[in-house]
Amino acid sequence: MKFLKNIRVILSLLFFLPIIIFFIDFTGKLPLHLHKLLSIQWIPALLSMNLVVIGILLLLSLFFGRIYCSTICPLGVLQDVLSWKSRFFRKKKKKNRYSYSSPQNILRYSILSITLIVFLCGSSFLVILLDPYSTFGRIVSQLLRPLVIWANNGLAHITNGMGNYTLYEVEQVSFVPLAFGVAILFLYLVTQLSWSKGRTYCNTICPVGTSLGLLSKISIFHISMDESACSRCGACEKQCKSQCIDSKAMKVDDSRCVNCFNCLSSCKKGGINYELRYKKKQEVSVQETVNTGRRTFLLTSGAAIATVALANTNKIIGKNDTILSRKPIMPPGAMNLEHFNDHCTACQLCVSKCPMQVLKPAALQYGISGITQPHLSFSTHVFCTYDCNICSSVCPTGALQPLPMEEKKLTQLGIAHFRKNKCVVFAHEEDCGACSEHCPTQAVHMIPYKNGLTIPEVTEDLCIGCGACESICPVRPYQAIYVEGNATQHKARKPAEAKKFNKKIDDFGF
Amino acid sequence: MKRRDFFKSAAIVGIASFFKTNAFGSVLSGKGVAVHSEPDLVAVMGGEPEVMLLRALKEFGGIKSFVKKGQKVVIKPNIGWDRKPELAANTNPELIGALVRLCKGAGASEVTVFDHTCHDWKKSYTNSGIEKAVTAAGGKMVPANDEAYYREVEIPRGMNLKNAKIHKALLECDVWFNVPVLKHHGGAKNTIAMKNLMGIVWDRGFFHNHDLHQCIADISTFHKKPALNIVDAYRIMKSNGPQGKSEADVVKLKSLLVSPDFVAVDTAAMKLFAQVQPTDLKDVRYIGLAEKLRVGTQNLEKLNVKRIKL
């Protein structure tokens, strides 16, 4: 049954490579509908209530076990790649390096139940933090993608110098220390565990893996050992990256088996097989015991993080400009804070795909539970493009509802606030108008001021909160015009067209 | 010929060659007596962009008076916005395409086109239609979206703007053409030739922070002047500039203004514009300020202006 492993490897690469390339692509050249590959991830499907996908994934697990973990989940495949690569760094190139270890039941079921409880209590904090697909997204978008862009910029610098402009330099403006930190932390955890212990992360920390483990205990097909054919050589156990084969006891822990099929390839005698579960009914004894010690630890550390974070917020607000304590600006299609915060897993796909890089992972703008969820952050030339709806069309979790272009152009993300006493026209009595110049709806327009000067004015119901005005306002560091986010995204009024000019001009006028 | 006479006439010819006029050329080539000098400003009305361009350039002695074989040429249109050509937010792509073809035809070794856009540069390059027109004509679009493409230069005659980072393609070329589109502008009142120079610099925030009009006048004193300013008034944006909201902001004037003089061409363009949207020339302050810095003249009466209707 060696072919099963090969099929698994090919399938997993067919999922993994397009996903990773889609996340890294900074040119916008890849077709956007590649995002459909991401809607078949477990958490995004659950959050967007995509019943078709949920059904397919459920059936897949009930029939074949944790196929999701071995082929579809990009974080799982990433770990396989890492542990496979780790072979080249070992002193002795030992091929067989795993051995059976007992499951960390208390830990894994605690994490699963705490995640569930916290989610049901209305905070998606742990779901965001632990969803494997989103963790993968954060690692790639925060760590790998910037490296690729740096490499591109280096190359572009050289080729541009030689007169070839096929490559071009890309400015990176989305560095957020907190998001970077979270990504580093999980990359470290995943690398550390997979380097020597295979899929320990999936079987101990990942709540998706733990839930699917419950399903795979009753899956129709499973890995089992044939006592008559087995020579008890233990080769399968050494190949098992889930460390779930106990070759002495002739037992396979189905709940931890990710169906990588490496064991099948290792056994030449047919002692281990992938077959129907028809003989004996296995006891499904789920230990729902919650380890209070660990929970206390998690809660305490959570509280500690919260305290540190709040302390920092106060420090920032201490700088005393209203712009710093403004309400966060959600990406278009987020509808309202509650919907958005509950459904977004902060996978960073929209952040990676935003051509203007105006979407950035939040620090504490949405509070603790919204860490790394995307928000709009404006800087020079960085604002939400009027006729662009990419973020809302790629979101796999439904946190951002798809917006047709005409609807996007009228979706009010926030409202521009003009602070006259900071404006160049008021303070220096000089023309500027950069804000109005960049306003796509002319919600920000210039009205007569004095001495032939004009000064900006905002018509609030025309404003869509794209931030073009704020991005270009020359007053720094705290602009004279800035956008305050809407807690609920409204529909803005459609801007009226100018009066048409129909007279014929046949003279130069000079 | 005596030695002394030879030197004398050689010196005269040498001095005369500084005055690049067609009249001089035609005398030398014996094609008849010069009856008029080279125009200071040519205005054409009533044709398609390419036809008007050819007609206007003919008055200046054709493209070959400006572009020599093997030279590197830069064309600087207005590609500031992610807008289709019909909205007149960017320079007409047919005009740019035609100019690239002419330069290539005159033997230019390369023709480079860029603008420091306000919207996403790739979308602006594509949706303005300019990228397609330029590449089809054998020209090259270069990016201008990163500070790495700019070099610091001094603007010694500037009042507020003493130095600026300018795109290196422009600094390295042999000859360049400034090809703006005539538009209303919320900040600067109007954008034409001088305002188009904001697309060759990196830090535009400085302009807005240090008297926009003065800085526009200052950048016009930059020593490397365009061979010609070619103002596209085929479609103009009469209101809601510089982006425009819809085609209701656009008026088709089917005109083209060409002059090496920044101030003259902007003055003429404003007079053309004022027929559609009455505007006081004085409010477009940078034109007067540039004249004070001796960039050019607003007095069109004094100039040799050619008006051509097709």
Architecture overview:
The complex is a heterodimer of chains A (about 500) and B (about 300). With about 500 residues, chain A is mainly alpha-helical. Chain A is built from 21 helices and 10 strands. Chain A has helices spanning about 1-25, 40-45, 50-65, 65-70, 75-85, 105-120, 125-130, 130-160, 175-195, 200-205, 205-215, 235-240, 260-265, 290-315, 335-345, 350-355, 390-395, 405-410, 425-430, 435-440, 470, and strands at about 220-225, 245, 250, 270-275, 360, 375, 410-420, 445-450, 455-460, 480-490. In chain A, strand 2 and strand 3 (about 250) form a beta hairpin. In chain A, helix 5 packs across helix 8 and helix 8 crosses helix 9. Chain B contains 11 helices and 12 strands. Chain B has 2 domains: about 1-35; about 40-310, Rossmann fold. Chain B has helices at about 5-15, 20-30, 50-60, 95-105, 120-125, 130-135, 170, 205-210, 210-220, 260-275, 285-290, and strands at about 40-45, 70-75, 110-115, 140, 150-155, 165, 175-180, 180-185, 190, 230-235, 250-260, 305-310. Classes of the chains: A mainly alpha (about 500), B alpha/beta (about 300). The interface between A and B is large, with 52 and 61 residues.
* Beta strand % of chain A: 5-15%
Largest pleated sheet of chain A: 2 strands, antiparallel
The structural domain count of chain A equals 2
Percent helix among the residues of chain A? Answer: 40-55%
Question: Gist?
Answer:
Chain A contains 21 helices and 10 strands. Chain A is mainly α. Chain A folds into 2 domains: 2-276, no CATH class; 313-490, Alpha-Beta Plaits, CATH 3.30.70.
What is this structure's SSE topology?
The complex is a heterodimer of chains A (510) and B (310).
Chain A: H1 2-24, H2 42-47, H3 51-64, H4 67-72, H5 74-85, H6 105-120, H7 125-130, H8 132-161, H9 177-197, H10 200-204, H11 207-216, E1 221-225, H12 235-239, E2 245-246, E3 251-252, H13 262-266, E4 272-276, H14 292-317, H15 337-343, H16 349-353, E5 359-361, E6 374-376, H17 390-394, H18 405-408, E7 411-418, H19 424-428, H20 434-438, E8 444-448, E9 454-458, H21 468-472, E10 481-491
Antiparallel strand pairs in A: 1-4, 2-3, 5-6, 7-10, 8-9
Chain B: H1 3-16, H2 22-28, E1 41-45, H3 49-59, E2 72-77, H4 93-105, E3 110-113, H5 121-127, H6 130-136, E4 140-141, E5 150-154, E6 163-167, H7 168-172, E7 175-179, E8 181-185, E9 189-191, H8 205-209, H9 212-219, E10 228-237, E11 250-259, H10 262-274, H11 285-292, E12 305-309
Parallel strand pairs in B: 1-12, 2-3, 2-7, 3-4, 7-10, 8-10
Antiparallel strand pairs in B: 1-11, 5-6, 8-9, 10-11
